[in-house]
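Can you make up a protein sequence with its backbone structure tokens?

===
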Amino acid sequence: MKKQETIGIIVVALLLSATPSLATPGQLQDTSRRLYDRVMEEFKHRDYEAALAGFRFFIEVHGHSILAANAQYWMGECQYRMGRYKDALTSFYNVVSYYPLSQKLAASTLKIGQTYSKLGDQDKARTMYERVVDQYPDSAEAELARKAINTSIAKIDSPPHPTE
């Protein structure tokens, strides 16, 4: 998607959200869902810059929406995929800190571990993986965390390869 189209979407969303007192709660929820879905399309098309801008905007306009935690999570995913690991950490921690009832808690905690791993801090990564396993033991994220823990143990236990 072109930057002009993204800006156009944002302008339309601003206009739609500029008169919340005239809109019913159902209309506001529909508006937030449409904007969220549109930004997710950017993400699915791997336009992470546009998606990141869209999710930021979504949180500014619809910060109290039931989709706000998801938007915060996907901001972190965009940053992670663009290699902006410190920014991604902040986004994932925001999900954990500000949205304690979010369905994205397990995924955010796992991503915090993966991000620490990318940053080279294996101790913090392992701590987060263990937290996922402890707090969300039956989740898909816990299975990924177990694999990450086992991989890190295997690396520690394997003898170094001899060099010639």
Remarks:
- Helices lie at 3-17, 25-44, 48-62, 68-81, 85-98, 105-118, 122-135, 140-157.
- The radius of gyration is 19 Å.
